[in-house]
Amino acid sequence: MEIGQVVGEKAVSVQITVLRGHNLKGRTESFLSFVRAELNGVVLGDSPKVDAVVDEAVDYNFTCSFECSDAAHNLDDLAHKPVILTVTEILPKEKKQKEEKTIVLGQAVVDLLPLLHGQSRFTASTVLYPAPGSPGETAALDGSKPVLDVSVSVPKPLLSATQLSESNLLKVTVETAYSVPDVWNQAAAPASGYAAALQVPLTAEKEQILMFSNGMLKMGGEREPVPRPKKWPQDAMLASGAQHIPGTNIEEQSVDMEDGDMTTAEDKEFRVEAEINRKRVSWDTERRCFLDAGGAAWLTRRIVESRLWPIEIMKVAQTGAAKGAKAGKEKGEDETLSFHGVAYVDLAPLLYPGATCVRGAYKLYPFYESELMLKTKRNYSVLRESMRPPVTQGKARVSSVGSCKAAPSKIFEKGGKDTKESPRKISVSQAGPQGKVAPDENVIEVEPQINTEGQMYADSKSYIVIEIALDKPLVPKRPPEELAKRVMELIPPRPPLPRRPAGAERAVQEFQAQVVSVAAQVLDQYQQLFGAAFEPSAWLTDPNTQEQRKTHLLGELNYSGKYFAFKEQLKYSVVRIVREKMLRTEAFTDVEQLQAFLSQLYVFLVDEMHKALNKTLSVDDLENQPQPQLECSQLKHFAREAQLNQDYQLATKYYQEQLARDRNDPSHWFDYGCFYMLRGDYQKAEQCFHQAVSMNQAHLSSLLMCGILAEMDGRYEDAETFFEGATCVNPSSVVAWTLFGVFYQAQDNSIQAEMAFLEACKQQRAGLALNPVDDGDTQTELDTQAENMMPEEEAEEDSADDSIEGEDVESSIKRCQSGAGVKEVEGSTLAVEPKPTRTASLTSPSKPCTIYMETVEFLLQSNALQMAQRALAQELLCPEGGLSSSYHLALAQLHTLRGEYGSAETSLSAALRDSYENPDVWALWGHLHFLRGESRDAQKCYERTLDFVADASDTHPIYLRLGSIYLKEGQFEKAKATYLRACKSSPSCLTWLGLGIACYRLGEMTEAEDALTEANTLNNSNAEVWGYLALVCLQMGRKLEAEQSYKYTLKLDLQNEPLLQEINEMQKHVGFGNPCF
After folding, report:
1. Average pLDDT over residues 622-631
2. Which of 67, 711, 809, 930 has a CB 3.0–4.6 Å from the CB of 1007, allowing a cystine?
3. Distance (Å, rounded) from C-alpha 674 to C-alpha 654?
């Protein structure tokens, strides 16, 4: 579609009606005035002369029109040229005066942009800005602004629905150029102007030069005010206020959110100084361009071909225009085109999904055509083209630089020859190797000299602030609703399953239900016989009467057969209780056992009957059911501990028990999926993550893992849906955006990857701005938090080791049970998560954590090793990253999880060179030695780790493995102290077991029994715990308990042969403990 082509390819009449004016001020109380309407330098008409009275409305009812067509007043003109309404007062004639004298009261502008948005009629109340010297200039101080009511209409919309959806509106705003060369001076003669220009496509065949030539040189001393209004690209405004576009302002924006070249810390400091003290040239002008479907597509292709877009700037001697026109063309251009510079604006962000704006500060460079060709694939200057006289006209075009009004008429047709040089528009097919040689040769010919004046921009560190915006994104972004629907299609949401009782619990509930049913029938029978007794006035308290009624009721039930029916009704539920609850399926051979069982059954049934009747007949609240002894957080801790010891069967048990507690918690499914990721069973892992998403469609971690596994399986479309859905679920997630970028990078989609990485950096900076942490104050802040949260624990940790060694085990158990020194997690009294550490400032004191290292941390915790390796590769390429201590530590963790111990050792050696006092590095090195069986070296690394002022990120495996080493070497006092610390920070069955073993070897039988009892409470299926309990009972002479402990030791199949042999020898020594004796 051509620029001016409208619906039906015919001219459309646009009517402008000035209805009335308000608060108009003239030189007298009553004055005569009229309104003149102009558009694009063409007078549309004058209204009749109307008498006006101050402070009263003036009805003009003036209508004029113009034709919107390709010949004149096309759609692009409507986009950036307003209708100018000038109100003029006719002064009274004096004696001997032949002609009327007039004075301009003010000007108003009407923006026609709503017509390009599909509206066929709109009204506006536009402010009438007073002209210089008019009466309204002084009257405006009282606060009542003059206003004109205007109506604009067309017989039908200028754009059809299809054209409206496919077209776009490009807005280019040139704000201010800062730190311009010091040689620029306002008092210099001759007077100079300052111009900026760029070329944009309008249609698929035509491009247009946008000229901004109303730059104003300002001295330094103060910052430009914000917000400040944007200006129209027209100069012919009598009223200064009319130059501002209604409803548009230049707003203040954080430098961190910009897209330009000046965003580093050094650039920020320079910009603060330059924007206050240095010279600047201000335009503050917005030029709007209407792009049809072809123009928008052509703009997209040009950005793909070359993401850098040149914006040229120059200084123009205003008195040299005429001279340049009379002199030779080449000579005139060289004399006028001074201080020729260029800024390269990266428009690739406009190809990000949903992106509509690029704004930033861009450095100014001296203009060289060779550099222009290399960066932008253009071989000519748009400023020179705008100043060159047209082929069809003999008059010079240099004057167009001084006026924005004439500049847009320079239009280039794609593939045609606008001048006698080579074609300026190079298509994708023409930009081959042969098409590039000729422009390069031309550049060498026309650039024999250095651009000395342009070099001043680089010497002064000049930069220009530019904004390029679109009404609609070039690449549409899928809305969150569509993404959510797509995720629902891939993983349908499942309603939470109702908790249904099974086994013994279900048998008891059925019995209680039958009791309630029988009770209701008995009450009905009682009411039929003695209905009056239920009335309060007839209530009988005589025991004899009550006994008589009871006998009568029982007789009636026996006579009617209901009593037998009640017994049959209860019989089936009682049988189920015997089988499911009492676990009796065989007949009794001993009468005494039968009687004892019947007594036990009778007591149980009576208790359950009372519970059922109390629920039915009593309104009192029942006592709360006892909570499970272990919380889900503890089960998760035990499962990870089992993973650490490579006891995957036990870890599976804990994860399944966690799911049995609450199958509707997506985090439980996520933990189970991460466990399968560690085992390499990706199919089951994906099933777990899908189950988590089906429970909660907004579970971020599971969505990311679904995307990772989908990419690993080659389902790239599904992976993109999951990653994009994760960014919509939590737009501030650094990990989600980073993984999105890594995914796009693997797909060779560099623009989308760049968008995702930039967004991740922005979100990380925003998060740091909300929670700033100074490296020097990190230690103090975390110490204060620890003192506020765990005062007792902090005091004890800072005490000497001998105080820990002498601590009583029983007091330690009581403290852990009471919650002292333990952090509460979701209502649990026992903490299982490692406490916050103070290692962050030690890991990389000179460099902040990058988005890739933050993502690597999540991936390593989730056991997504392939994606973690790719993220680490990005860390190497990141300017803020590189071979840091945190990088080497993460790489060593990756190698350790893969079992590549040699590579892990190499990475740890490099990490120690960068940060020798990092406790996490020493801890991982200790784990590496431990896994290799090098106990002595592991012990040294663990002891060094615990000696540091700062704790490692996870001390639990350190305590476990160091304690086990001490036990093997017979250092029981050190083992006891180590396990005491472990029991205090993160208690588990293994920590209490280790403490019990150490106490037993030291001869502290009471403390050993207490510790082993705690271990048995946390896990009653550990055969080693039962074995040491048997030893303790044998030592203390408790025969029955020793035999019972030994029986469970054998039943649970103890694999520790030395321990089993020690138990047998002790049994022979004391003479009891083995039922086989």
Report:
1. 58
2. 809
3. 14
Task: Give the C-alpha distances (Å, rounded to integers) separating 585 from 255, 576, 707, 748.
Answer: 78, 10, 51, 68
Q: Alpha-carbon distance 204 to 878, whole Å?
A: 38
- The CB density around residue 504, as the number of other CB atoms within 10 Å, is 15
54-70: b (≥16 Cβ within 10 Å) or e: eeeebebebbbebebbe
Contact criterion met (CB below 8 Å) for 215 and 312: no
Which token pair is 844?
């990389």
Is the bond preceding residue 227 a cis peptide, omega within 30 degrees?
yes
- Give the whole-number percent of the chain exceeding pLDDT 90: 24
Three-state secondary structure string covering 384-407:
HHHHCCCCCCCCCCHHHHHCCCCH
**DSSP conformation class of 577:** I
Q: Using alpha carbons, select from 490, 860, 897, 852 the residue that is nearest to residue 686.
A: 490
pLDDT at 16: 94
DSSP 88-147: EEEPPP-TT--S--EEEEEEEEE--HHHHTT-SEEEEEEE-EEPTTSHHHHHGGGS---E
pLDDT tens by residue, 976-1019:
999 998 898 889 899 999 999 999 888 888 899 999 999 988 88
pLDDT digits (tens, 9 = 90+) for 862-906: 999 999 999 999 888 887 777 888 888 989 989 999 888 888 888
Structure tokens at 624: 């709360």
For the chain, the distance separating the N- and C-terminal CA atoms, rounded to the nearest angstrom, is 104
Q: What is the DSSP string of 659-707?
A: HHH-TT-HHHHHHHHHHHHHHT-HHHHHHHHHHHHHH-TT-HHHHHHHH
Looking at residue 1077, its pLDDT comes to 54
Bridge partners, 126 (sequence order): 148
How far is the C-alpha of 513 from the C-alpha of 505, rounded, in Å?
12
* Per-residue pLDDT at 320 exceeds 50: no
Kindly list the distances between the CA atom of residue 826 and the CA atoms of 625, 632, 633, 820, 823, in Å, as whole numbers in the listed order. 19, 10, 8, 16, 10
How far apart are alpha carbons 126 and 150 in whole angstroms?
Answer: 7
Q: How far apart are CA 32 and CA 58, in angstroms?
A: 10
Highest mean predicted confidence (pLDDT) among 521-535, 722-736, 796-810: 722-736
Contacts of 814 (CB under 8 A, 6+ apart): none
Phi-psi region of 996 (alpha: psi -120 to 50; beta: other; left: phi over 0): alpha
329-388 pLDDT per residue, tens: 443 444 457 889 999 999 999 988 888 999 999 999 999 988 999 998 888 888 888 776
Burial bucket for residue 166 (CB in 10 Å: 0-12, 13-18, 19+) = middle
Residues in the chain, how many? 1077
Q: What is the mean pLDDT of residues 572-594?
A: 83
Tokens of 784: 């204060």
Name 314's Cβ contacts closer than 8 Å, sequence gap at least 6: 194, 195, 337, 338, 339, 340, 341, 383
On whether the CB atoms of residues 852 and 738 are closer than 8 A, the answer is yes
Rounded CA separation 246/241 (Å)? 10
Residues 6+ apart with CB under 8 A from 613: 515, 516, 519
What local confidence, expressed as pLDDT, does residue 196 receive? 93
The C-alpha atoms of residue 977 and residue 74 are separated, in whole angstroms, by 87
Residue 857 to residue 954: CA distance in whole angstroms: 14
Tell whether omega for the bond before 190 is within 30 degrees of 0, i.e. cis: yes
- pTM value? 0.70
Residue 830 has pLDDT above 60, yes or no: no
945 and 979 Cβ atoms separated by less than 8 Å: no
